[in-house]
User: What shape does this take?
Amino acid sequence: MTSGPPLAAWWFQCPRLDYILAILCVALLTTWLSRRKPKSTLPGPRGWPLLGNLPGLGRYPHSSMRRWAAKHGRIFQIKLGRQTIVVLNDPALIRDTFTRPHCDSRPQLVLQTEVLEGDGGLSTSNGARWREYRKFVVCALRQLESAAPNIESRIAAEVAHLVKVIAVTDGRPFAPDAVYGCMSNVMFAILFGARFAHDDADFRRYVRDLRAGYRMSAHLAALNCFPMLARLPLMRRSLQTLSENRRAAHAFIADHVCDHGTVLTDGEQPRDFIDACAMEEHRRRTSGKEDDHFSETQIRYLIGDLLASGIITSAHSVVWGLLLLALHADVQTDVQGEIHQTVGEARAPRVEDMASMPYTAATVWEVMRYRSVLPLGVPHATSEEMQVDGYRIPAGTHVVPFLHGVLSDPAHWRYPDEFNPRNFLDENGNLHRPAAFMPFSLGKRQCIGMRIGEQKLFLLLTGVLQRFTISVPPGTGTPDLRGVPGVTLAPPDFQLCAAMR
Ligand code: HEM
Assistant: This one.
């Protein structure tokens, strides 16, 4: 019997099997590595040389983003100039990414460094300063919710004022501009403990400049990707106006910080935000904490930032709400029915009523879903390299939560493109808040004024509808519901008529 080679020798001598084995190993290794190694190139729309996707954004960036999201899925990238921006378009992915420590920074944008000259409020600061401010502001607002007068009664006072302003129009058409004054006064009352007469010249200038600043940042935002545009005369002029307005706003704030009056002692409850700041500054000084986070200048920056973050967002939401209700008489009638049943006519609606008014609560949320005033959220930046959904995202990448995409995704909403409170009601009319409802974003940088924003919208819309039925003046056509895009999605200019009920 001829003895054949041992099996092992045959194994290695047979060239074909050798090749097959090698190929198999390489294939297995590649599959294994590709599972483990983050993918580095995110999908995304093709861009232009130098400009990237800027021309593709068009006049309504959130609409273009929606088209790209439909094509590229829950995570994709766009390029604006040389800047890569990662767009997240899925509630779970936004939640997961924004609760992780390396995605809680804000990018250092040119517009910010040029105009804000590096000032650090809560929404623009990073690192230890941001953590301290965030903890302090969240805690101070919680204390003020139970102070006397509390935040709810400050909002209620402004709603009562707005109702009087509307009553004077006596059915004649009016632009709902007074809402901006009311929302500013709510914030001033919370922060300074004082409100202003709507015809006070400094107050009017403050509100006017704030609105103008938001409008101007729409075209100035291009500077963030193309800083050399700052040399264009139009841009230079706008930057100059923005800086002047900002200086005037700070002088206005400084006057009222100085005029604030008696300083509280330890153990007393703060009456307003300035009290809380002064107490914190005193606590730090006496405990020998050596930093300037609560110096008078920094307190002014902090207050300026809270005013800018809290006024326009809530005022736009309220104005969108008035417009949408004026255009949807059926929804308005149902809300009025619930107000009549739960609150009656003798007293003003209160925040606690919201729990027994599911249709009205659903309407308030639907306003924020249907016309999210920050459709692209506020950008974050990665402070270190991180993996998101299997992709490697380098440090310093801008990350944008596509809130409008999530809030209008047919996968999460029964009526994604309709203004319909039933998006928040089950078959039995019970209220439910889907996980995809995130107009205030999610995670470590989530809006700190979320409760206040919701309360303002509920109290103002119910306060107005308790007294009036609103409509757009006949013959004026339907206002452009696409809104005016910019840093925020502003409502269009329009007029309302309010008939006393
Ligand atoms: C309907 C009203 C409002 C909406 C829709 C809204 C929405 C948002 C959104 C989307 C963000 C970005 C969160 C992120 O970066 O992930 C934000 C941040 C912020 N909001 Fe609001 N907001 C509203 C009202 C307010 C109010 C009333 C205040 C003031 C009390 C406020 C203060 C802030 C601040 C300070 C930040 C920055 C937080 C941080 O960077 O840590 N917001 N808001």
Summary: Residues 98, 122-123, 134, 306, 309-310, 313-314, 317, 373-374, 377-378, 439-441, 445-449, 452-453 surround protoporphyrin IX containing FE (CB under 6 Å).
